[in-house]
Amino acid sequence: MSRQPPIRIGARGSKLSLAQSGLMQARIAQALGVPAGASREEIEAAAPLIPIVTSGDRIQDRRLMEIGGKGLFTKEIEEALLDGRIDCAVHSLKDMPAELPPGLVLAATPEREDPRDAFISHICERLEDLPKGARLGTASLRRQAQALHVRPDLEIVMLRGNVDTRLAKLERGEGVGILLAQSGLNRLGLGHLTKSWLDPDACPPAPGQGALVIETRAEDVGAPWLDAVRCRQTTIAVAAERGALLALEGSCRTAIGARAILDGARLSMIVEALTPDGAQRFRREAQIVLTGADDVGEARAFGLTLGAEVRAAGGDAIVLPE
Asked: 107 Cβ partners below 8 Å, 6+ apart?
């Protein structure tokens, strides 16, 4: 077994975050020399998991855009990383702001889970089949705008909280349908609850949706154990999507969807931004062939270009006013 010191992993304390971080914990432990099939104690000794409660977890009665945006899910974790209390952090990539604090980097992205948005309801199979004026639950401005683009008659109800909380709210009748990330449902063993999915071409998911990411201090980005958890295909695709996110100045106040697919050297991408009411949609689709010189850099530049085109088309219309 490797003599490397333990890698302390920080993560949010929610059920989903701990499930996701547990997957990465096992991968990191193996990369450090812990054999497959090792005991829980051996894994924990090599890569201890440290739950950290974030501001986003504590405040559940308001939309993120009202209280500071996506950074509220990462602030306390990133402070622990910069202070040296943890060595890396595991995040859902879709929750990561477009820009990171100085000194921190997104160091490794493993294989992506299903990136689609899942529709769950007890009364119909598809979003399009909801009764006129039905209440649809989501806390995502993007999902709100995309749903209203298809069904402007729907009433959107704010639905924050962890997956179990949102499902319980559906059971209590706070909505007749809800939208959740399929990846999170799968990782919690709840994928069977999905009735249907939003078409990922017609309604692109959030940039990075379905992907996890390991954040480290900049000086640690070359650590050998990180190579064992990197997925080239996912890394390239999300680099393009986050390029679009950065170009669009993406936050919880902007309804942005982006989907990149790598097929050999060909990278295809859809980027869109919508007005919050879904009435207007600004969209670009394109593809490039990567040269192999710097695939990640080329993908990011591609995303930046498409995002800038969407930004120029949408202007101030796509940003929710303060």
From this structure: 88, 214, 215, 216, 220, 221, 223, 226
Q: What is the distance, to the nearest Å, from the Cα of residue 37 to the centroid of all Cα atoms in its chain?
A: 29
- Give CA angle at 244 (240, 246), nearest 5°: 115
**Beta 104-108 vs 117-121: how paired, if at all?**
unpaired
User: Which residue's structure tokens are 């309604």?
Assistant: 203
pLDDT at 59: 55
Amino acid in the structure at residue 66: E
Tell me what pLDDT residue 2 has.
46
pLDDT for 3 equals 60
For residue range 220-256, list pLDDT tens digits in order.
Answer: 999 999 998 999 999 999 999 999 999 997 656 789 9
Query: What band does 159 get if pLDDT is binned at 50, 70 and 90?
Result: confident
pTM for this model (two decimals): 0.91
Residues 6+ apart with CB under 8 A from 79: none
| Active centre residues (catalytic) | 95
Q: Which two tokens stand for residue 238?
A: 């999300």
Q: How far apart are CA 266 and CA 46, in angstroms?
A: 39
**Quick one: pLDDT at residue 99?**
87
3-state DSSP of the chain: CCCCCCCCEEEECCHHHHHHHHHHHHHHHHHCCCCCCCCHHHHHHHCCEEEECCHHHHCCCCCHHHHCCHHHHCHHHHHHHHHCCCCEEEEEHHHCCCCCCCCEEEEECCCCCCCCEEEEECCCCCHHHCCCCCEEECCCHHHHHHHHHHCCCCEEECCCCCHHHHHHHHHCCCCCEEEEEHHHHHHCCCHHHCCEECCCCCCCCCCCCCCEEEEEEHHHCCCHHHHCCCCHHHHHHHHHHHHHHHHCCCCCCEEEEEEEEEECCEEEEEEEEECCCCCCEEEEEEEEECCCCCHHHHHHHHHHHHHHHHHHHHHHHHECCC
